[in-house]
Structure formats: C-alpha cells, structure tokens
Amino acid sequence: MRVTRPPRSFSAPIDAAPADPLQADALWTVAPGRAEIRRETLTSPAPDEVLVRARHGAVSRGTERLVLHGRVPAAEHDRMRAPFMSGGFPFPVKYGYSTVGYVEAGRPDLVGRTVFALFPHQTRFVVPAEAVVPVPDGVPARRAVLAANMETALNAVWDAAAGPADRIAVVGAGVVGLLVAYLCARLPGADVTLVDIAPERAVAAAALGVRFATPDAMPQRCDGACDLVIHASASAAGLATALSLAGLEATVLELSWYGEGTVAAPLGGAFHSRRLTLRSSQVGQVSPSRRPRWSYRRRLGAALALLADDRLDALLAPAVPFFDLPGQLEQMLAPEGGSLCPLIDYPDVPGHPGAALQRRARDP
C-alpha cells in the first residue's frame, strides 16, 4: 500500500459536553486519511434497549486501515457494513466493531453491567438489549475489547478443522494470528509455530506460550510437511510462505483480507503435486461446521469467555484517548505498528475534561 505523507493537523473548537445526557461524540472517516469527531443526539432507550457509556475500544489495524483510505471494493460495500455502522462507503462513514462499556439505562437486568458491543467508536450509544453481551466476571473490561478478534480466531480454527497432535503453522503474528496460534496451541499434542518476518514479534508469542520462527527457520522445522497452515499476514510474501509449508493434501486457510488489492498466489511449483487446498475464512458467517447450532451471539459469548487468561493482556497496546483519535488514527493503523491491539480509552463520566478538548481533524 502506498504510504502518504503525514497530514498537517488543524484544530477547531468543540463545545464542552452539554447538559443533555442523550448526546454523544462519534468518530467519522470523512475523506482518505481524514477523520473527525462529530456530536450526535441519541434517543431514549425503549424497554427492550440499553444506553451504553463506552469505556474502552479497539481498532482493527487491517480492516479499518482499508476503511480510512477508502479501499473497500465497491462490490463489497453492502457485505462490509458493520453492525450499527452509519453513513456509507467510501465516505463519510462511522465504522468500527469493538466497544466495551457499562449500561447506564434501559433493561433493568443489564443496568450497571459491563458489556461488549459490536459498535463503532462512540462515547455513548443506544442499541437493542440483545446486541450487547455481558463481559464475564473473570475478564477485565480493557481486555474484553479483544472479543471481536478472538471471535475471528475462533471461527478460523473451526473453519480449519484443527485437531489434536496436528503440526500447525500460523503465518502472520498480528493480533488475529497470535490469537489463532494461542487457540491451536491449547489442542492436546498440537505442534504449533507462529511465523513472521519481524523477529521482535517473538516477544508476544512467548507471552502466550507459542513457539515462534522466522520464515527462513521454518523449513528446518517442518520441511513442507505441516498438516495445516493458517495465513494471516495480509501480504503476498506471507501467502507464498504459507503455501510452501503445507504438506501433502493439506489445507492453507486464508484469513487475510486485501480490500481492493490484487495479490499474486504462487500456484506453480508443488501446489498441484501436493494437492493443496487454499480456502478462505471470514467471520461474517459462522463456520459451516457449527452453523446449524451456533448463533452469532453464542459465538461472541464464547469468544469473551476465552479471554479469561491474564497472558492475553500482552496483546494490548498503550491506550489512546478517544478525543485524540483523529490526530493519531493513521499512526495506530500503520502496518508497521506491530502485533499489539490498538486500544481506545473513553472519558468515563459526564463532564470529563476530555469532552472539552478540541476536535482534531485531518487536512491531507
């Protein structure tokens, strides 16, 4: 992807939070590389709805980078709509799908509870009560922002049909790749290696108890005989590495999404003689192996429960205050940003000093 020069920033005043409690601030992407915070008015929650005040959020480095630069293919505009997204692709659009907050009002059994919602980056919002999932007691609110990524990883493991004692390579040590390797390493007897070109990502892998190797070191480990390879690097070189590691009649599961990009797949060499299967996986549908019995809500609840492991805190980057997002979003989404999950902290109470900060927009 072409790297644009860092845009100049400008400031415009944003009023302090109004007395009306049913207003909120939301992050909108309004042009390539340009985001701004907009004030929105909310409706009071109905009996079957809840009013949520956001506490923490997460940014998807891969998908939201494509959204920020207007690179969602026109043919995918409808399928790529996130729950509760506003606007439309390419711009202006309010996008995002990882928010943890507490219920301020609405259905009585949920008031005061910490919940996860697939909602864009916004300080407060009203949604149907069924659209929020309570965070388990053993999962801190900040770690719970990983639920969307864990849900993707869980669905991928189902799609891949990973099993005990399998020799598995996961190529790409981003957040999703790390979580896939973490889940696979918990299979009895599984031999799992996380592969990435950046040696420093071995630190996060070690924190999760996962073996790490660079691509050059992998042939010595498996000699093209992996039972399963899962690719999550979002690069052509990573896909080539994944195909080279797959054994006879093995599956290479493709988790990366390239937006408008065209990626060369090296289907010469031993691809046909090894009778390899290259298969896609996408979290928008529950894996066919579970679809007859699993709802989206059940899958998200399972992903939240899987976050009850203190080691997963190693995947969280230092938080950026919500009102600083327009000025820092480009840096947070940079491909070289590392293997950690970009984290958002929201003002916690009405009248928080953050609500009186200036709007930061982007001027390319």
Task: Describe this entry's structure for a reader.
- The chain has 364 residues and is an alpha/beta fold.
- It has two domains: 8-142 and 313-363, Alpha-Beta Complex (Quinone Oxidoreductase, Chain A, domain 1), CATH 3.90.180; 149-280, Rossmann fold.
- Helix content is 20%, strand content 29%.
- It contains eight helices and 19 strands.
- The protein has helices spanning 61-68, 147-160, 175-185, 202-207, 218-222, 236-245, 296-305, 325-332; strands at residues 8-12, 23-31, 34-41, 49-58, 86-87, 93-94, 99-106, 114-117, 124-128, 132-134, 167-171, 191-195, 211-213, 226-231, 246-254, 277-280, 316-321, 341-345, 359-363.
- α2 (147-160) packs across α3 (175-185).
- The model is unreliable at 1-19 and 351-364 (pLDDT under 50).
Summarize the structure.
With 364 residues, the chain is α/β, with parallel strands linked by helices.
Distance between the termini: 17 Å
Top CATH class of the largest domain: Alpha Beta
CATH H-level name of the largest domain... which superfamily? Medium-chain alcohol dehydrogenases, catalytic domain
The CATH topology of the largest domain comes to: Quinone Oxidoreductase, Chain A, domain 1
Keywords:
disordered N terminus, 6-stranded parallel sheet, 364 residues, 8 helices, disordered C terminus, alpha/beta, 19 strands, 2 domains
SSE blueprint:
Blueprint: E1 8-12, E2 23-31, E3 34-41, E4 49-58, H1 61-68, E5 86-87, E6 93-94, E7 99-106, E8 114-117, E9 124-128, E10 132-134, H2 147-160, E11 167-171, H3 175-185, E12 191-195, H4 202-207, E13 211-213, H5 218-222, E14 226-231, H6 236-245, E15 246-254, E16 277-280, H7 296-305, E17 316-321, H8 325-332, E18 341-345, E19 359-363
Parallel strand pairs: 11-12, 11-14, 12-13, 14-15, 15-16, 17-18
Antiparallel strand pairs: 1-19, 2-3, 4-7, 4-9, 4-18, 5-6, 7-8, 8-10
Helix pairs in contact: 2-3, 2-7
